[in-house]
Q: What sequence folds into this?
């Protein structure tokens, strides 16, 4: 007799992390391995953040501040938002989980795109919700089609803007037009993990300023990407204080560790590092665009730190061949790959090995 797991998780697979750099080095006997697979910041962490972490090391014997008071204060000052409208979390990943735990009843419909960030569908299934999948249109969120899917069972709509993995975005006009049509008893979540990389001025940069007009809107941001803190696990969500108070009930008491809190505060005050991350990304993007153009491969213009490329051949095979040569990217369904934008040196190594694998020169 075996202990029976919940049927809801039957077709959910565990996250399969890519091989760590060290493993790839050993397995293929390589001196250098470049990882452009997880949209991490190629600049590493800033000096200010390093100092904040070392200054707080001695406090590790104590539990962190379970309210993340100082971090909330910093975000509050930076964005001019009351602290009651801010809820930090152990990355956006945890927040997707918490929102689902607090709000999805069995049978509730959860609208999301395909292809987009996979945690939305997984957490919906874990909570016995009913995922409602709306295909992208020209690799972009089709907000009108999402509106059409609303029923009296709809509970949540996940908007990833800009979208991972396609890099595409919806404009402020598109988003506001959508938001105005969504009934107020449906939660709309704007996952803005890549907002710091957006170059277009028609992006909805001011979602944090409209929260009192749209109490059904949650805005999710993270320190994992442009701020370079993926390993520490910290992000925050902005929204109506009542909505956040219910999410707060299902949160673990010490979900954001003390070094993450200190580092996030330092990162918020480090505009120079953010600017540098943006600039390096822009330079790498232009370089990779021109290389892909030269090879005749199509990609949607990206507003993130990764590019979704149609390489006209199986992405999985190219992934394997690149890995043998010391470059790790992410294979995507069909003929697509997703490559994170690295430093120029990393981008050039990717292009060199990519051409080698595809027999291009
Ligand atoms: C990377 C990513 C996240 C997860 O961010 P963490 O804060 O590291 O958990 C959330 N949403 C999207 C779209 C992402 O790409």
A:
């Amino acid at each position: 007799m075996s202990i029976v797991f919940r049927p809801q998780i039957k077709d959910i697979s565990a996250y399969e992390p890519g091989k760590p750099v060290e493993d790839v080095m050993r397995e293929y006997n390589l001196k250098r391995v470049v990882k452009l697979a997880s949209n991490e910041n190629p600049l590493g962490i800033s000096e200010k953040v390093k100092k904040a972490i070392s200054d707080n090391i001695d406090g590790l014997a104590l539990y962190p501040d379970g309210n993340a008071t100082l971090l909330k204060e910093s975000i509050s000052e930076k964005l001019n938002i009351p602290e009651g409208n801010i809820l930090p979390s152990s990355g956006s990943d945890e927040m997707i989980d918490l929102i689902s735990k607090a709000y999805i009843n069995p049978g509730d419909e959860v609208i999301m795109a395909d292809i987009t960030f996979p945690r939305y569908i997984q957490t919906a299934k874990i909570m016995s919700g009913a995922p409602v999948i709306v295909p992208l249109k020209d690799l972009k969120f089709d907000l009108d089609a999402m509106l059409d899917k609303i029923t009296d069972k709809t509970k949540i709509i996940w908007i990833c803007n800009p979208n991972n993995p396609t890099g595409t975005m919806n404009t402020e006009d598109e988003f506001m037009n959508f938001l105005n049509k969504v009934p107020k008893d449906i939660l709309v979540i704007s996952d803005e993990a890549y907002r710091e990389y957006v170059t277009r001025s028609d992006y909805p940069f001011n979602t944090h300023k409209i929260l009192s007009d749209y109490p059904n809107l949650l805005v999710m941001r993270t320190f994992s990407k442009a701020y370079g803190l993926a390993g520490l696990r910290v992000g925050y969500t902005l929204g109506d204080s009542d909505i956040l108070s219910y999410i707060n009930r299902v949160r673990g008491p010490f979900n954001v560790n003390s070094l993450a809190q200190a580092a996030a505060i330092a990162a918020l005050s480090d505009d120079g590092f953010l600017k540098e991350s943006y600039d390096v990304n822009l330079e790498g993007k232009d370089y990779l665009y021109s290389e892909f153009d030269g090879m005749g491969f199509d990609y949607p213009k990206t507003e993130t730190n990764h590019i979704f490329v149609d390489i006209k051949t199986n992405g999985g095979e190219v992934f394997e061949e690149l890995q043998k040569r010391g470059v790790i990217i992410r294979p995507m369904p069909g003929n697509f790959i997703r490559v994170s934008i690295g430093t120029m040196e990393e981008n050039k190594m990717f292009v060199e090995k990519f051409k080698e694998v595809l027999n291009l020169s």
The mean pLDDT is 97.
